[in-house]
Amino acid sequence: MRVLALICTLKPAPAKSSSDLIAAQLLDLFARAGVDGESVRVVDHDVRPGVEADMGHGDEWPGLRRKIAGADILLVATPTWVGHMSSVAQRVLERLDAELSETDDQGRPAMFGKVAVAAAVGNEDGAHKIIADLFQALNDIGFTIPAQGGTYWNGEAMQGGDYNDLDETPEAVASANATLVRNAVHLARLLTAAQYPPA
């Protein structure tokens, strides 16, 4: 079993990123559950705007798409910007739109049988809306969402600070992270054993 984390920070590597940090914490929990993981900072790749599987002219989305296709679980981690997901996360959803026309050999949408989870971090409100928007889009594309499959951290309103600045992970976030991983792995194993019916 495999999990792919798409980190949708606006900061290229190796800059510190709170989205990268929470994704790393989740990947560590997945590893403890016996699930291999990989993380990709999307901003480090030339992902062109559009809704096709390959936009040509050096577009690097096809390589990321192959990684998504090879994973059982997709984690989207995004910062909060003016109450919304990052533009990078929005672009990921736009590019995943191409999967609506892709099917397997039994007529099911290509992402059927894959699990999607989400993480949002920011020093402003918006995590609930971000996760709701991500889940609606990912479910439309064909991913299955586990119970309590989202985790987040919001800093105190109208203050500075960052998830990276914390001395330790708050207990509520650690608990949400653990539940997300436990339920995602459980659901992915069920779907591997019993795929959705053919179209």
From TrEMBL:
InterPro entries per the UniProt record, alphabetical: Flavoprotein-like_sf, FMN_Rdtase-like_dom
GO molecular function: oxidoreductase activity
Span of domain NADPH-dependent FMN reductase-like: 1-149
The protein, known as: Multimeric flavodoxin WrbA
Phylogenetic placement of the source organism: Bacteria, Bacillati, Actinomycetota, Actinomycetes, Pseudonocardiales
